[in-house]
Amino acid sequence: MADHTVSYRQGRFEGLIPLFLPSEEPPRPVPDNTVVHSKLCLALFMVMAVMTVACACAAVVTAAAENFRSPSSPALEGSEQERAVIPNMSAHIAYQKLSEEARRKLVFCFLNTSLPSGSPYPFDVDNVSVSLCDALVYVAVGLDANRSAIRLKNPARDEEALRKLSRLKSAEPATVIAVYACVGGEEGDSPDFKAVISSKKSRLAFIRKGADWVRQRGLDGVVLYWKYPTMASRTNLSTLVNTMRLYFDKEKLRMTVVVPWNVVTRRHGYYVRSLFDRLDVVIFDTHRTVDSSSFPVTTCQSPMRALFRARHHGQVGLTSVVDTLTAATSVHDVLFKAVLSVSLAGVSFTLKHPRLKNHRIGVQAIGPGRPFGNTNLTGMASYYDVVETLLVNRSWTRFLHGYSRCVVAHSHDQWVGFEDRVSLRAKRPILRHTRGLAVWDISMDDFAGDFGPSWPLLREVRDLLESYNSYAVVTDTILLLP
């Protein structure tokens, strides 16, 4: 007798009740999953193909109907004389136009004629490429505390440079560029600032005389730069800035300020929220954050993030400046008024232990680097000098520090931190949220183009910020002239 397996179910009654016998179990066909999936995919693709063809046909029919129904463009409705001369001859064009709703990124070019040229060629105001800058700022003029007025630190040189800047602007009427004079910028200007803002009478006199001074020289405005403002002068300085902004607006002139990169110094000298309420642009002096004659470790002037050893001695990176600014204010629009700064002049150090193979950022230094190249200044080197040295001297090595996002060149006991095209592109994330970038010491660039196109660094900054500007595609119809 065959051995049959029977399935059982436990009920409420005693005993097991058979569910079914093997001979009575209905057959169960097992479908082929591969065949089912293939048929399902094929059906899905067929449906998508039919829908795509139908949509394309509908779009073609709609476009054709719209073309026949649409009236003639206003550009085509010319005079009868034009139609008689060139009947039915027109062209449809499409071009990019800067969006009027979005505020464009700005490039501030700071021109310091007191520095030597960074290349073998003498640098002059006429060398400046107007197309790469949105604003030209002349560095720097001083304050006359006795007269409560603006004074020239080097009258012959400054007057000639300001005259050329005004002439440069007039020669390019199609280029919308603003020309400023930077008032201050040195540690020795602090006593003059304190005297000028000390009373209401001196403040008003400085504002009125400053407006006349700007207008006489054909400039657009001034940039106030007090490097180390004090807490005792904060109220008077804030009053000066607010009153000057109102007066300059009435006279159709412009003004802005350069504030310290150090958060403590900035809060001691300014009511930061009031600055952003009154001004359209606020510039931060992040281009000179260390002095190689006293800073004990190697670093760059404008790192994205300061290394621990550099941060321990007081330096902060660009990201820290932005973070402290956003933490101090609750309005997101404030950050878009901020303009950070970089310098095209590198900072040089002399290493304490040159025999160490690791010449990274943060190693000990005993002082500024020795003078070399065309700049020939202690603790400073131009971009031109560093590139030329790397090409002709194989003992020099260059590398990009990933954490700080700045470029380093070194040889034996000499160490230089500088900006090049790679390091500027590495600062792209921080520039996405700000209004633009202030480029100081532009004479340190390769403005003559000995190693490629002229103004490589300034051109890189221009291209970098232009990539963030919003453009709209505009279409138009123009008549073709005979």
List the helices and strands and how they pair.
Layout: E1 8-10, E2 16-18, H1 33-69, H2 80-85, E3 90-98, E4 106-112, E5 135-144, E6 149-151, H3 155-171, E7 178-184, H4 190-196, H5 200-216, E8 221-225, H6 234-250, E9 254-259, H7 263-269, H8 272-278, E10 282-284, H9 308-312, H10 318-328, E11 338-343, E12 345-351, E13 365-368, E14 380-382, H11 383-392, E15 397-401, E16 406-411, E17 414-418, H12 421-426, H13 428-431, E18 436-440, H14 456-466, E19 471-479
Parallel strand pairs: 4-5, 4-18, 5-7, 7-8, 8-9, 9-10, 10-11, 11-18
Antiparallel strand pairs: 1-2, 3-19, 5-6, 12-13, 12-14, 12-17, 15-16, 16-17
Helix pairs in contact: 5-6
Question: Can you offer a commentary on this structure?
Answer:
Keywords: Membrane, Transmembrane, Transmembrane helix. It holds the Pfam family Glyco_hydro_18. There is one protein chain. Helix 5 packs across helix 6. The protein is of the alpha/beta class. It has a domain at about 100-345 and about 420-470: Glycosidases (TIM Barrel, Alpha-Beta Barrel), CATH 3.20.20. The chain has 14 helices and 19 strands.
Count of strand segments: 19
Structural class: alpha/beta
CATH fold description of the domain at 98-344 and 420-472 = TIM Barrel
How does the overall form come out from the CA principal axes?
globular
Bin the strand percentage. 15-25%
Mean pLDDT level: 84
Rg over CA atoms: 34 Å
- Which CATH architecture of the domain at 98-344 and 420-472 is right? Alpha-Beta Barrel
Strand order of the largest sheet: 4-5-7-8-9-10-11-18
| Poorly predicted spans | 1-26, 70-86
Helix content: 25-40%
CATH homologous superfamily grouping of the domain at 98-344 and 420-472: Glycosidases
Q: How many angstroms separate the termini?
A: 110 Å
**For the report, how would you describe the main beta sheet?**
8 strands, parallel, barrel
| Alpha plus pi helix count | 14
| Level-1 CATH class name of the domain at 98-344 and 420-472 | Alpha Beta
GO molecular function: chitin binding; chitinase activity
Domain GH18: 105-468
Keywords: Membrane, Transmembrane, Transmembrane helix
GO biological process, one term: carbohydrate metabolic process
